[in-house]
Amino acid sequence: MELSKRQEEIVEIVKANGPITGENIAEKLHLTRATLRPDLAILTMAGFLDARPRVGYFFTGKTGSELLTEKIKKFKVHEYQSIPIVVKESVSVYDAISTMFLEDVGTLFVVDQKSYLSGVVSRKDLLRATIGQKDLNQLPVHIIMTRMPNITVCKKEDLLIDVAKLLIEKQIDGVPVVKDSDGGFEVTGRITKSTITKVFVELTADER
Ligand code: ADP
């Protein structure tokens, strides 16, 4: 986050004199304590300063990028996951393509008869299937999908940054969020490259 000129001045004063009371910071800046209150609140909330009752403000020693890293490392999958689009193994490639358009997603998760995750179908998987001479209405998705146990998954308590790393490492667009259910994975959500892009943009909207 970018600090205002006054906020920078406050940080410098606290660095040099901390612990220091709000009253004393205000005196040094020839301002009233009330005028400084919003700036002190922002600096404390953002983690630049810490405040102890009856002691005053002191500098945490953390740089802006360290604070940003700390913040990103707190983002959990369940806070950002979106609704998964799921199809059955028996669904035809033709219907899977229609579902992809209707639901406006790039990845479909495939489930077996018990509704457990059994595979993933991407846009290119479907494109590849259309190149052949096969009748797309007769070809079930389970023939062309990437199947378990080769599916990369995540859990709702996982860190979003770790899922972002998985997307890069595995060169995939999305992963299902799953819950262990005896003998399989229940699909409860999805994290995609779009999720990560949105969070990236939101990080700047947070600046106040
Ligand atoms: P596209 O193939 O449209 O570029 P992806 O990069 O997501 O989309 O998919 C690349 C390949 O990886 C596809 O064959 C797909 O089935 C597979 N895939 C996609 N997501 C996963 C996942 N979470 N786990 C394992 N394989 C996946």
Descriptive report:
Helix content is 45%, strand content 20%. The protein is an alpha+beta fold. The strands form 3 sheets. Strands 3-4-5-6 form a 4-stranded mixed β-sheet. Strands 1-2 form a two-stranded antiparallel ribbon. Strands 7-8 form a two-stranded antiparallel ribbon. Helix 6 links the parallel strand 3 and strand 4. The longest helix has 13 residues. The chain starts with a helix and ends with a helix. The structure holds adenosine-5'-diphosphate (ADP). The site of adenosine-5'-diphosphate has 16 residues, from strand 5, helix 7 and strand 7.
What attributes characterize this protein structure?
Arc Repressor Mutant, subunit A; alpha+beta; 2 domains; CBS-domain; two-stranded antiparallel ribbon; 4-stranded mixed beta sheet
Radius of gyration: 25 Å
What fold name stands as the CATH topology of the largest domain?
A: CBS-domain
Q: Give the beta-strand count.
A: 8
N-to-C span:
8 Å
CATH class of the largest domain: Alpha Beta
What structural category do the secondary elements indicate?
alpha+beta
Number of domains: 2
Q: What is bound: which ligands? A: adenosine-5'-diphosphate
The helical percent reads 40-55%
- Tell me which CATH architecture of the largest domain applies here: Roll
Largest β sheet strand count, sense and barrel closure? 4 strands, mixed
Note the run of SSEs as H and E: HHHEEHHEHEEHHEHEEH
Query: What average pLDDT do the residues reach?
Result: 93
Large-scale geometry? elongated
Q: What ranges have pLDDT less than 50 throughout 5 or more consecutive residues?
A: none
